[in-house]
Amino acid sequence: MTEQSSTRGATSDGTRAGFVAIVGAPNVGKSTLLNQMVGTKVSIVSPKVQTTRARVLGICIEGRSQIVFIDTPGIFTPRRRLDRAMVAAAWGGAGDADDILLLIDATRGIDDNSRAIIDRLTATERKAIVAINKVDLVKKPNLLDLTNDLNRCGVASEIFMISAQTGEGVPDLLAFLGENMIEGPWLFPEDQISDMPQRLLAAEITREKLYLKLHQELPYATTIETENWEQRDDGSVKIDQIIYVERPSQKAIVLGKGGRQIKALGEAARRELEEMLDVRVHLFLFVKVREKWGDDPDRYRDWGLDFNA
Ligand code: GDP
Ligand code: MG
Questions:
Q1: What is the pLDDT of residue 202?
Q2: Where are the alpha helices (DSSP H) in 129-197?
Q3: Residue 235: per-residue pLDDT
Q4: Which of 23, 32, 36, 161 to mutate to test the pocket of ligand 1 (most atoms within 8 A of CB)?
Q5: What local confidence, expressed as pLDDT, does residue 92 receive?
Q6: 1 is a domain residue
Q7: Is the Cβ–Cβ distance between 103 and 28 less than 8 Å?
Q8: Is 32's C-beta closer than 6 angstroms to any atom of ligand 1?
Q9: Full domain range(s) for residue 213
Q10: Which CATH number does the domain housing residue 109 bear?
Q11: Considering only CA atoms, which residue is closest to atom 25 of ligand 1?
């Protein structure tokens, strides 16, 4: 990001651009908001916490501004090595950004996770544009206390009320972010919505389906890799993916009785891939057992994470 920033300042005809890091406790709706703003599915959304592993860019054009969003993994108290790497990536993203958009869950208020983020922002003397999310779930008068609390801790340069799900309040937030960008040429080509390679995105889609179907039975230590991507003459795409699990018992769960589970999973993922790519997709899923992938440095590199964080 630093490289791109250094090319700024060149003359432009009223265009603006910049990076906005979306930070917030797990499950506040960061990915949902990003998808709402960018208008295309770029980051997976899941009811289970902590599914965003890598930094994802979503790019939004608002008037003459290009807003580049960084969707960070939820910032939380790290325990395992993988968690530490994710938290380091999250703060790295925030540090590089021009603006920080802090999401607070209206139903949870300032919980311990949010408090930790606010404290860290305050310690580094950074202000955040705060968006209170999920306002569709609470009565408006109840938001007054939360707004007062946020004003009191002095971290907010601005406070917005939004519902990432319904889109309420999102246009106002976007308009503000757009005006707040730095004058200069755009940072990415106009048609680019995400810098996430298609293969990785395709793996994310399958991972989302897996979580939605099996979140009770599977640990986070499940990973999916797109092994092969083949453009066919008839315009369709053949995609091979491997679902890595840690134990044979997990493999059995993913496969399901008579392979029924993986078949349903593949169907759901294929449909979404076809929608995204706008071509016919042949998706082949394989399940393999790979122990302790969470301690494998190569995996971290693949995900753009720092093994030694
Ligand atoms: P992240 O961990 O911060 O990226 O959170 P997600 O975007 O994955 O959202 C977590 C959960 O909250 C999902 O079940 C979303 O559907 C839900 N959610 C997100 N935004 C809203 C909202 O504005 N209203 C409601 N009712 N649910 C939301
Ligand atoms: Mg997320």
A1: 85
A2: 143-153, 170-180
A3: 82
A4: 32
A5: 60
A6: no
A7: yes
A8: yes
A9: 198-303
A10: 3.40.50.300
A11: 134
- Same domain? For 39 and 179 the reply is yes
Same domain membership, residue 205 and residue 170: no
Ligand 1 atom with least separation from CA of 162: 23
CA distances from 52 to 45, 58, 88, 207, 240 (A): 8, 13, 13, 10, 22
**pLDDT (0 to 100) of residue 21:** 85
The total number of structural domains in the chain stands at 2
The domain boundary residue, chosen from 151, 183, 215? 183
Q: Can you give the pLDDT at residue 31?
A: 80
| Ligand 1 atom 10, closest CA | 27
Q: What is the CATH number of the domain that holds 231?
A: 3.30.300.20
Nearest Cα neighbor of 189 from 57, 41, 95, 98 is 57
10-residue mean pLDDT profile of the chain (309 residues): values are: 41 80 88 79 46 56 85 55 61 72 96 88 88 95 92 94 96 95 83 62 86 73 82 87 89 92 95 84 93 66 64
pLDDT of residue 249: 87
45 lines ligand 1 (CB under 6 A): yes
Q: Is 29 in the pocket of ligand 1 (CB under 6 A)?
A: yes
Instruction: Find out whether the beta carbon of 31 lies less than 6 Å from any atom of ligand 1.
Output: yes
Taking a C-beta distance cutoff of 8 angstroms, is the pair 128, 100 a contact?
A: yes
Q: Is the CB of 27 under 6 A from ligand 1?
A: yes
Q: How far is CA 73 from the centre of its chain?
A: 7
Written as one letter, the residue type at 45 is V
Least distant ligand from the CA of 23: 1
Evaluate: CB of 164 within 6 angstroms of ligand 1: yes
At 8 the pLDDT is 46
Same domain, 28 and 155: yes
Last residue of a domain, one of 127, 152, 183: 183
